[in-house]
Design goal:
Elements: E1 29-30, H1 42-52, E2 58-63, E3 69-73, H2 82-90, E4 94-98, E5 104-105, E6 117-120, E7 129-131, E8 135-138, E9 144-148, E10 160-164, E11 181-194, E12 209-216, E13 226-228, E14 242-244, E15 247-248, E16 256-261, E17 265-279, E18 282-290, E19 301-304, E20 307-318, E21 321-328, H3 329-333, E22 340-341, E23 349-350, E24 357-358, E25 362-366, E26 372-377, E27 383-386, E28 392-396, E29 402-412, E30 415-416, E31 420-427, E32 432-435, E33 441-443, E34 446-452, E35 458-463, E36 467-470, E37 476-483, E38 486-495, E39 516-523, E40 528-531, E41 537-539, E42 546-550, E43 556-561, E44 564-570, E45 575-579, E46 587-597, E47 600-601, E48 605-612, H4 634-640, H5 642-647, H6 650-657
Length: 664
């Protein structure tokens, strides 16, 4: 049982349901009759926690995800100090959990050092602190380092370190008698266990930490931003199976967590709460996790997914269940003077392309967002390309045809990804037509074919226009043509002797580009519509009866009225005429005329006229209003006297009944 006098509080920052943990922490005492509610955050909670931590049996004070204040003790509620007991009994949201032993650090100080690494006071030391490496790191100058726990350095006296043989460590099947130091690791650069200067630390203070930094002095070592799962320890190569570390952050309460250490290897559990605890008399900010750990795991890495959240600081058991205290890595790093955790960057990926690249076309791909892509050509000067916020990058393919090899890496800060190498084949892009363009209708004739290409290249036209031209310094070319009415197709290629002189010559034979083709028509101008002239207004029933105009002799003129075909006619002596069937309906009428020669229809002429609707004459003043037609007097007449009605002026009678004013 511990007799620690000073304790520190830690605060839950994320949601956690304590499902499945009943029994793990012994009897949990809840205040069933108390009406008070203990504070769970802010200055009031800090004051409460600091007060409770002065009691001998209280090991830590925290809040869980259910809004409870959790008092971790080494004694049942009845045996803890009066102040803590009073809070537990009088508050409805206080839980007491009993630990088997006080939280203690996992560093071993036996003679024969070694555990992941061994910390020694001098090269001739006969004993060492056996601990575990937490994470690869960078010094402020970008030199390699590793991060571990501060208590592993024995308050800064273990200033040199050496790596140990994995199979000699407990996690690799060894024991303390088989620990073997294989090679030098480095020298101590920074260490703090507790408060500044390795003092006990202040209750609830962010600068109460457990962290050390070792500068890697062995040039034969390569630090990797990865965490081993210990499954390859039998090969002595722990990098054979790893998990990447892509970020650094705070521990998330209730989320899964894993740790890796030289004693118990790779184990997983859940983060229960975060805050501060007293670890062998020193205050350490961090978090409590329910998972397997043991002495020698100290300093080992703690990750949630691919995020570094802490290093192993200490632990204990509760009714035989191992619990671990992890030191907050962010708080620790803030005191190191600029050391940072090395992060894993995914290697950049090149977007697959099944065909060769055209000159100056974009070579593109993906990589870590916000990083810089360093491109190293096989023959050429390296250059950098930004990777945007969406993880996309691109650079222009060479402007000279040939085969090219590249190596690309992503960089962010001092972190560098693995290299990606790839080859591309660059071929000359086909020239571009500027006139005519694909699908274009050209009026009357085509006198030249023009376009753009690579300066100095030779453009060759085949198809309905043949010829060659040299692309000028501005990138333009022109070939004479003489095409009249008809449908045509032209293909253009360009070639140059400018090919990249590499050893791989696979595409040198393709110094000539592939072809690009345009299909187009040369057609007649629009015919002229003489009548009806645009804008004329006709009375309903007195509209035009024909459409006529002028055109090209022999052309076939097609006329549409409001989009509906009205027929075709042929131009003779420069004129054409097409009769219209029936009168045009009232409203706006659009007449369209085109003429076609050699099967090619030219542009259209239009004439829009208006057919004004006829207006009924107004009624004569004083004329009686129309009478309602009941049908009663009309039916007998219809049945037997239709001839009489007509003879006797029945039409006038009907006209009067409907209120008409005309007479026959």
């Amino acid at each position: 049982m511990s007799t620690w006098k000073k304790r520190a509080a830690y605060v839950a920052v994320c949601s956690l349901a304590l499902t499945g943990l009943s029994g793990t922490f012994g009897t949990a005492a809840f205040a069933t009759e108390g009406d008070d509610v203990a504070p769970t955050s802010g200055a009031q909670f800090d004051t409460l926690a600091q007060s409770l931590l002065t009691e001998d049996a209280v090991q830590a004070v925290a809040t869980d995800a259910d809004g409870n204040v959790v008092i971790y003790t080494t004694e049942p509620t009845d045996d803890i100090g009066a102040g803590a007991r009073s809070v537990a009994e009088d508050s409805s949201n206080v839980v007491v959990k009993v630990m088997d032993e006080p939280i203690s650090s996992y560093s071993t100080n036996d003679v024969v050092g070694g555990a992941g690494y061994a910390g020694l006071t001098d090269p001739n030391a006969t004993s060492a602190s056996l601990c575990s490496i937490g994470f690869s790191a960078w010094s402020p100058a970008g030199d390699p380092a590793v991060i571990s726990a501060g208590h592993c350095t024995e308050d800064g006296t273990a200033v040199i370190s050496g790596l140990t043989l994995p199979t000699g460590d407990a996690a690799g099947g060894g024991n303390d008698s088989t620990v073997t130091v294989t090679q030098a690791l480095g020298t101590l650069a920074f260490s703090q266990y507790g408060g500044p200067g390795n003092t006990p630390g202040a209750d609830g203070a962010a600068d109460s930490v457990d962290i050390s930094v070792i500068d890697v002095a062995n040039p034969a070592l390569t630090t990797l931003p990865e965490v081993t799962d210990w499954t390859t320890s039998a090969t002595e190569d722990l990098s054979g199976s790893t998990l990447p570390v892509r970020s650094v952050g705070a521990a998330e309460v209730g989320a899964p967590v894993s740790k890796s250490g030289r004693t118990t290897g790779f184990t997983s559990g859940n983060v229960e709460s975060v805050g501060w605890a007293n670890v062998d008399g020193r205050q350490v900010s961090g978090f409590l996790s329910v998972l397997t750990s043991s002495q020698g795991d100290s300093g080992g890495s703690i990750i949630q997914g691919d995020r570094a959240v802490g290093v192993v600081s200490g632990g204990t058991t509760v009714q035989g269940q191992s619990v671990m205290w992890g030191a907050n890595i962010q708080n620790g790093l803030a005191l190191t003077g600029g050391y940072t955790v090395a992060l894993f960057l995914d290697a950049p990926v090149v977007t697959a392309q099944s065909t060769p690249y055209f000159t100056d076309a974009p070579v593109s791909g993906t990589g870590p967002a916000g990083a810089t892509l360093t491109v190293t050509p096989e023959n050429g000067t390296p250059f950098d390309v930004a990777i945007d916020a969406n993880g996309a990058w691109s650079f222009a393919a060479p402007g000279t045809e040939g085969n090219y090899s590249y190596s690309i890496v992503a960089k962010k800060g001092f972190d560098t990804s693995a290299a990606t190498t790839f080859d591309i084949a660059v071929v000359l892009a086909p020239p571009v037509f500027t006139a005519p363009v694909n699908g274009q209708l050209i009026e009357t004739s085509l006198k030249a074919v023009t376009g753009t290409g690579k300066a100095g290249a030779t453009v060759t036209l085949t198809g309905d226009v043949t010829g060659t031209a040299t692309v000028d310094g501005a990138g333009n070319w022109s070939v004479p043509a003489d095409l009249s009415y008809g449908s045509y197709s032209i293909t253009a290629t360009q070639d140059t002797a400018d090919v990249n002189p590499t050893a791989a010559r696979e595409f040198q034979a393709q110094a000539a580009s592939t072809g690009t083709t345009v299909a187009f028509q040369v057609g007649p101008v629009a015919p002229v519509i003489s009548t009806p002239a645009a804008g004329v207004v006709y009375a309903e029933g007195n509209g035009p009866t024909q459409v006529n105009g002028t055109g090209i002799n022999g052309a076939i003129v097609t006329v549409l009225v409001n989009g509906v075909s009205a027929g075709t006619t042929t131009v003779a002596d420069g004129e054409w005429v097409l009769p219209l069937v029936g009168q045009l309906a009232a409203g706006s009428v659009t007449i369209t005329a085109t003429q076609a020669i050699n099967g090619v229809t030219g542009t259209a002429a239009t004439s829009t006229i208006t057919i004004a609707a006829a207006t009924a004459p107004a009624a004569t003043p004083g004329t009686p209003a129309a009478l309602a037609n009941t049908g009663a007097p009309v039916m007998p007449l219809l049945g037997g006297g239709l001839a009489l009605l007509i003879a006797a002026g029945g039409m006038m009678l009907i006209a009067r009944r409907i209120g008409a004013t005309r007479t026959n």
